[in-house]
Specification:
Blueprint lengths: L2 H4 L3 H14 L2 H7 E9 L2 E4 L1 H14 L2 E11 L3 E11 L5 E13 L2 E9 L15
Parallel strand pairs: 1-6
Antiparallel strand pairs: 1-2, 3-4, 4-5, 5-6
Helix pairs in contact: 2-3
Length: about 130
């Protein structure tokens, strides 16, 4: 069996998901998720690949530049837990970062459940770190 037949590891799938978000590549997002995948972003729930792509497109509109730093990733047979920092630039030029945690569950090497929880300081995106981007 070749590496191509084996497919991506769970960690590689999560990193590919964030890479697709950074590049605003909705086609790649589509291929990484099951048809009935669910994404939870804080209190919001998006069901199915089409809803996840709509969320990703909207995220791309709010943040014209998005860089993800993976700070921790570990997992088991069918899941990954993850800490990350989203470094963002908004259309008005303001920059900031959003620290977050995530958990990802898989079915047939595709994302089935995605929980992404931004961690906010006093409910605000932090905007004072000019050296982030």
């Amino acid at each position: 069996m070749s590496k191509k037949d084996i497919g991506l590891s769970h960690e590689q799938v999560v990193k590919a998901f964030y890479d697709a978000l950074m590049k605003k590549n909705l086609k790649s997002l589509d291929s990484l998720c099951t048809e009935d995948a669910t994404l939870m972003w804080a209190l919001y729930k998006f069901e199915g690949r089409n809803e996840i792509k709509k969320w990703a497109a909207e995220l791309g509109e709010h943040f014209c530049k998005l860089i993800i730093d993976h700070t921790f990733m570990d997992g088991g047979k069918d899941y990954i837990v993850h800490k990350f920092n989203l470094k963002v630039t908004m259309p008005n030029g303001r920059r900031g970062w959003i620290p977050g945690v995530g958990k990802y569950e898989f079915k047939d090497r595709k994302l089935k459940q995605i929980w992404m929880n931004p961690i906010r300081s006093s409910g605000n995106i932090l905007i004072t770190q000019k050296d982030l981007l």
